[in-house]
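Q: I have 336 residues here and want to know how they pack in 3D. Can you give me a structure?
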Amino acid sequence: MPPTENLSRNTEAVADSLAAMIKKELTTYSCYDAYLNPSDPNMITADNRMKLVDWCYDIVDHFNFSRETVASAMEMTDRFLGMPSNSVDAARVSDEALVDQSKFQLLTIAALYTSIKINEKVAISSDLFAEMCSHIYTVEEIEDMERILLIGLSWRCHAPTAAQAGMSILSLLLPYADIPEVTWGFLIDEMRYLTELAVRDYYFSTQHVSTIALAAVFNVISDASTKERRELLGAYLRVIMECFDFDHPNQIAAARSRLKSLARPKTLMQEEDLDERSLDVQEAKANRNLPQCQLSRAGSSSANGSSLLLSDGTVTVGYSTTRYIEIDRDISSMPR
């Protein structure tokens, strides 16, 4: 299927959809202040969060689910911890999760469990989730945490994702960009890749998804297009910025810079100026992969006797040969 088939040519409907997304993120799903304090040695860290995101990506890859399901799960986790609690249970769990890796981990697992039920056609049972966690948490603990999470969020669990907003922005560019299908495929794929990277970075948990999406589209256009096309598409993007209630350009610029630093670490800066004539999408995928995280049962235990997936030495992060891993569905091969 041609890549542009994933985009909508109904610009009026797309514009209405994007406007609705932005309105939602400014109201129902508004961002809250950062909930982590790097200067507090007793608090969980951004690195703890990143490792759990990688584990969630491994899980959805295993089942061939959408990676946007992880984005939804982490949005629920971040919003739950960043917003004022609306119940005694939610307040207790939020306070505990910020200083207890095991509780934070359970909260994230419950969010992924919920997100899969909401966003995927096939749900995973709580029994299987307990198995994937090496029975560190019981079925009852996962289901009880899910209940507290949903009540704490007032059952608001359909927040738009940066990838959705990015697809809307690219759809609005479609009528004005006469470029080959292979280039459209690259733009879509790289935009999704950048939004996946953003999910891993705690910094973006306090940014609007429309900001992340717009920054990602700006970056992929500047990377994959000729100078003339960059200028043309950049001009159209700036028109789009004026038509919608996006964040200030300075925030967009900051997000662009942050995404560039994530996507192009010093050891991987080999592809600064991709020429359209030599564009090889598959090679680009292989050269800039998301780190894959494999979790195993830890040797140390928390105060309640449960092993922590985030304990030292239990997480191995490395670059795989392809961005999306094909994993045998046998339960014995699942990431632990």
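Q: Anything worth noting?
A: The chain is about 55% helix and 5% strand. The first strand starts at residue 291 and ends at 295.
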